[in-house]
Amino acid sequence: MNKRYDLSGALLNWYDYNKRLLPWREDKDPYRIWISEIMLQQTRVEAVKPYFDRFMKELPTVKDLAEVEDDRLMKLWEGLGYYNRARNLKAAAQTVMEKYHGELPADYDKLLSLKGIGMYTAGAIGSIAFDLQVPAVDGNVLRVLARVWGDDSDILKDKTKKEMGKKIQEFIPKDRPGDFNQALIELGATVCVPNGEPYCDRCPWDTVCTANKENLIEKLPVKAPKKARKIEYKTVFLLETKDQIAIHKRTSKGLLAGLWEFPNMSGRMDMQDVMEQMKIWGIENGEISPAGKGKHIFSHIEWHMEGIRIALKEPVFIEKLLWVSKKELKTVYALPSAFEIFRNIL
Question: Residue 280 domain-assigned?
Answer without folding.
Answer: yes
